[in-house]
Amino acid sequence: MRLAFSDEGPGPVVxxxxxxxxxxxxxxxxxxxxxxxxxxxxxDLLGHGxxxxxxGQYSIDGMADDVIELLDTLGLAEPVVVGGLSMGGYVALxxxxxxxxxxxxxxxxxxxxxxxxxxxAAKRGELAEAVARAGNPGPAIEVMLxxxxxxxxxEYRPDLVVGMRKMMERNSARGVVGTLHALATRPDRTELLGxxxxxxxxxxxxxxxxxxxxxxxxxxxxxxxxxxxxxxxAGHLAPYENPTVSNGxxxxxxEELEP
Length: 259
Fold this sequence. Notes:
The protein is of the alpha/beta class and 259 residues long. It contains eleven helices and seven strands. The protein is globular, with a radius of gyration of 17 Å.
């Protein structure tokens, strides 16, 4: 699957994978800050942004395959840093599980390793039906957007909320429906965590209501040598909400990888 993508900056490659139902422009502040020193490659995953949004049911492993295909197309066979937020974290875990030789280091942001509970999967199915009936992503936006941000962001940075809504509105009903199936059927990667042998950063917003810091702490504890960083004044979109602190944490992690 040919994905739309941004490719910014010099140096070692850092792949950034966005959450649902957003797109690669959630990384705009990372393009400038991290892209000043590293080559940041950020695709629109299947069904999002400018990438194709075919009818049908998507899968997290299929999205991971698309990312590997993109790297192959760009001639990047060497291991790269892979970072993902929320759904992007599920894709990153699929890559490290199935293509470990392609991963130099891992960044798991506002995400979890567990699969959906039956109740959560059923709610995703109901939401997919609502989106299909509406013919637009509106029902998903109304469910997701209020849960994304910390109260301080909503109060003092409403422009971020407005910008995120616009990003979400760019997605099609087809893409949202297909992706909801991918999220509901994703495999549990908990058993994988203990076998991860690359440097790993686990990053989470202190007010994340979707994947709370406790989940990230447990994930970091399970990954040998993983570093946990809690980002203040941020909810589920920590690098987007508080890019200054998030970028500082990410750059320190990347700098420590250099020989």
